[in-house]
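4.2 Preliminary Data

To establish feasibility before requesting continued support, the project team ran the inverse folding procedure on a target of 907 residues. The structure was first converted into the token representation described in Section 3, and no sequence information of any kind was made available to the design step. The complete token record follows.
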């Protein structure tokens, strides 16, 4: 029975009751060693009537075994693999070594873990218990955290324990914690009864009520009395000392056996017996250690009573004794335990040792194939320390750096890359070192450092591997795009075109064409840039291989996004997103979703864009992608400005600007400024709008960005007109006209024609606006067309052509209402009423109340996806999708998917 744990038991009972009611609940028990976390887990398991238990325990010595903890947890559920999406099942089977094959995306195993837990809970209400989660191998912890954060509507309770103050899956997560403290004095006295009350009080003061410390010190009797004053001795040190004193009372053979048990990570007595025999020891000698309360022997296993006992014995034993134990264990493990054997060999090594290095290198390769990148990084790095020569050491350190980067440990990867330079950085390896260094800098910032490293590495590869050089230069263009460095984009794109070999692969041609299009358009050469984009789009449309390449998914949307045409490459946008979701490519999705969201926001799919920005921001935060986070925040702020959501827009724009400043992301800093400028214009504050838009113009000029589509000239013209500054408006309109004609694309030409209409004489205004509307028909941008109609109608009204004005104003109002551009709806409504026509205010659509995630689910299901398909696409469980769908039905007043599709189509 748990003494003095009423609060904890009530919380555990609540979590279990939630699961029984059909909902999910997660709880993390946090506390110091020996505080009773494991006992609380045992209580939860005892109370789990009606729930099937999945249980795992983190073990320090298994931190290097790929997905060891996840396999222990999911083993009873593996029979349900056929019920989860096949790509996820394949990823999980590969990770758990159930079949050969590479896992691929780092987060695919997390998505599969979520799906399998959801399938298990759908079959039986489930209780997940994970003890000592801080000791899980990182790959298991990452996958488990991914799943736990997304549980919502499954009959599943998850309880994990972590040691206070140690790194664990809770770091940076939002799982609800419950700190487990010491027992109160009465419970402490009851635990150590029948010791004398004064001794019980002294024990309580010395241990702060830690149950393990109370029991261990109480067993020492008079030694626990100590001096007549209270000294600040750490509890763990007191406990360790108690365990060590018991070990010291044993004979030498028993102590050597204890070291062997402490070094053994499996606990199997069969392995221990073989290892002991090789050392001339008899495993029966552990009986004395069991009698002393140090170990437990049962069911073919030998384990310490508490992890602290194991840690104390191992850390205080002689170094040569530990090496002896690891060497014996390595020789005693069966062939199926190659990874454990490799680590034991490494721990037994005194210095460089070829056999241990080779074994660990192979273990690292196996972990990499299974997607356990953190484990692979540790294996490769340790192998490098044992490698007997510099060439091999450099190769292994690079493998470790690459694995660390894939595991999300950018700082560790950079540190390892720096170390390689001091060891061996010659020939092809130097190119790959710099390629990886450049990609890390481009992703983590400062982005122009990434550009410089990538461009330099491309020159080193130019003669021997020209296609690799083209790839690096394209990545450099993308880095400079984030920075807004137009001239640098042009330099890298031109060099990529020069290096593209005759007969190059379609992949290299596509990257070169798309990078060239980005650079030329950004640099102000719109006509040639558009031609390059068209070449890239044509290549992508012809190649299924390009459309499914994970490294190209975010590139696929660049052509359609920059062309801004109603037809060109539009199918590539949806294809890229579908393939990224099917591949569980969460590392790619934030950047891809940001770009697709901007595309949808530039059409009439604002709600979809908002949902995509929301998902991009959530995933970028979760995966630590700061550049993508800044981009998505700036994009969302820009969309919120058009909606007129002042508070949200300002918050997101300011967060984006802070990130951009720290990462050197000039382009998105300019877009965040643009968002604030458009917000002020929408809210009827033209002076502040002009100030911010002028600031953006200066920033774009500093960056050398000459693309007319990034210019706020049209918004500035309108702000100047409202402020009564016709000369400034005319000058800016002329500048826009010149740039738009040079690019020759309908989107910017339409904006230029609108500005001419704003400034034209009454007898010329109609031709200007009609030209603008004809150009708008060639683009998907409903908002810009509505802005033109609003300006057109307002000019017609002032020219006393009220009947004709009403036609334009009605169309503008309908479009703004449909988009949810509330400030612009109010302007259109006011203009329409000024013509003498009363416009009915739009009834707030119930669809507007859907959250971004609800909208995503509604759209997928309305498009014909099944619940399971929608769940797989959004990395949710089917039950969570159904939970959100019930809210969607209630909010929209529908009761079937057919009605849902009809409702969404009518929005």
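Position-by-position output of the design step:
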């Amino acid at each position: 029975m748990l003494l003095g744990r009423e609060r904890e038991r009530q919380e555990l009972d609540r979590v279990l009751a939630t699961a029984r009611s059909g909902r999910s609940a997660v709880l993390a028990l946090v506390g110091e060693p020996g505080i009773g976390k494991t006992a609380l887990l045992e209580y939860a398991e005892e109370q789990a009537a009606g729930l099937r238990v999945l249980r795992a325990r983190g073990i320090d010595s298994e931190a290097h075994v790929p997905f060891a903890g996840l396999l222990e947890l999911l083993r009873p559920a593996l029979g349900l693999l056929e019920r989860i999406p096949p790509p996820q099942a394949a990823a999980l089977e590969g990770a758990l070594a159930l079949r050969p094959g590479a896992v691929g995306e780092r987060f695919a195993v997390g998505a599969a873990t979520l799906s399998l837990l959801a399938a298990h809970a759908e079959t039986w209400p489930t209780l997940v218990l994970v003890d000592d989660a801080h000791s899980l191998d990182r790959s298991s912890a990452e996958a488990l955290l991914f799943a736990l954060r997304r549980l919502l509507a499954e009959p599943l309770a998850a309880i994990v324990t972590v040691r206070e103050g140690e790194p664990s899956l809770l770091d940076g997560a939002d799982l609800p914690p419950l700190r487990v403290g010491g027992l109160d004095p009465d419970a402490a006295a009851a635990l150590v009864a029948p010791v004398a009350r004064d001794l019980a009080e002294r024990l309580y003061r010395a241990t702060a009520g830690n149950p393990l410390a109370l029991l261990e010190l109480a067993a020492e009797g008079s030694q626990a009395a100590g001096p007549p004053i209270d000294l600040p001795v750490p509890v763990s040190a007191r406990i360790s000392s108690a365990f060590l004193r018991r070990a010291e009372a044993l004979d030498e053979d028993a102590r050597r056996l204890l070291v062997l048990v402490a070094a053994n990570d499996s606990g199997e007595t069969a392995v221990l017996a073989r290892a002991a025999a090789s050392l001339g020891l008899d495993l029966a000698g552990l009986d004395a250690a069991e009698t002393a309360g140090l170990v437990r022997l049962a069911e073919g296993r030998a384990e310490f009573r508490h992890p602290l006992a194991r840690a104390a014995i191992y850390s205080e034993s002689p170094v040569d004794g530990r090496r002896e134990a690891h060497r014996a264990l390595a020789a005693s493990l069966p062939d199926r335990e190659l990874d454990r054997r490799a680590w034991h060999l490494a721990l037994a090594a005194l210095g460089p040792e070829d056999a241990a290095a080779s074994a660990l290198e192979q273990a690292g390769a196996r972990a990499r194939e299974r997607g356990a990148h953190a484990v692979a990084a540790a294996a490769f790095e340790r192998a490098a320390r044992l490698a007997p020569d510099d060439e091999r050491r450099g190769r292994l350190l690079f493998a470790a750096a690459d694995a660390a980067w894939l595991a999300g440990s950018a700082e560790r990867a950079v540190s390892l890359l720096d170390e390689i330079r001091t060891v061996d950085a010659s020939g092809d390896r130097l190119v790959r070192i710099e390629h990886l260094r450049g990609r890390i800098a481009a992703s983590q910032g400062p982005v122009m450092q990434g550009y410089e490293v990538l461009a330099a590495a491309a020159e080193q590869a130019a003669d021997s591997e020209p296609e690799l050089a083209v790839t690096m230069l394209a990545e450099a263009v993308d880095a400079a795009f984030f920075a807004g460095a137009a001239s640098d984009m042009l330099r890298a794109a031109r060099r990529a075109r020069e290096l593209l070999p005759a007969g190059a692969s379609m992949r290299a041609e596509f990257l070169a064409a798309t990078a060239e299009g980005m650079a030329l358009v950004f640099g102000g050469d719109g006509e040639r840039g558009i031609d390059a984009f068209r070449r890239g789009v044509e290549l992508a449309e012809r190649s299924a291989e390009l459309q499914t390449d994970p490294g190209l998914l975010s590139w696929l949307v660049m052509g359609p996004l920059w062309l801004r045409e109603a037809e060109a490459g539009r199918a590539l946008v949806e294809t890229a997103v579908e393939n990224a979701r099917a591949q569980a490519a969460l590392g790619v999705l934030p950047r891809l979703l940001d770009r697709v969201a901007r595309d949808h926001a530039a059409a009439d799919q604002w709600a979809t864009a908002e949902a995509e920005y929301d998902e991009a921001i959530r995933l970028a935060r979760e995966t630590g992608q700061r550049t993508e986070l800044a981009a998505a925040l700036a994009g969302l702020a820009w969309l919120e400005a058009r909606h007129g959501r002042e508070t949200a827009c300002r918050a997101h724009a300011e967060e984006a600007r802070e990130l951009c400043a720290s990462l050197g992301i000039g382009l998105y800093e300019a877009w965040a400024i643009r968002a604030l400028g458009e917000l002020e214009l929408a809210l009827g504050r033209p002076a502040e709008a002009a100030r911010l838009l002028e600031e953006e113009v200066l920033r774009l000029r500093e960056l050398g960005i000459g693309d007319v589509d990034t210019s706020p000239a049209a918004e500035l013209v309108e702000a100047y007109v409202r402020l009564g500054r016709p000369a400034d408006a005319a000058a800016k309109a002329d500048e826009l006209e010149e740039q738009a004609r040079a690019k020759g694309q309908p989107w910017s030409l339409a904006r230029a024609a609108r500005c001419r209409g704003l400034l034209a004489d009454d007898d010329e205004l109609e031709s200007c606006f009609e030209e603008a509307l004809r150009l708008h028909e060639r683009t998907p941008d409903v908002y810009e067309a509505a802005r033109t109609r609003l300006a057109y109608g307002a000019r017609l009204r002032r020219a006393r052509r009220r009947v004709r004005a009403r036609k334009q104003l009605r169309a503008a109002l309908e479009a703004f209402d449909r988009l949810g551009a509330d400030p612009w709806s109010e302007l259109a409504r006011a203009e329409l009423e000024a013509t003498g026509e009363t416009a009915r205010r739009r009834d707030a659509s119930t669809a507007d109340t859907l959250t971004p995630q609800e909208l995503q689910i509604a759209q997928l299901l309305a498009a014909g996806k099944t619940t399971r398909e929608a769940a797989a696409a959004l990395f949710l469980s089917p039950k969570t999708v159904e939970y959100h769908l019930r809210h969607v039905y209630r909010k929209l007043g529908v009761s079937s998917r057919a009605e849902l599709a009809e409702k969404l189509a009518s929005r």
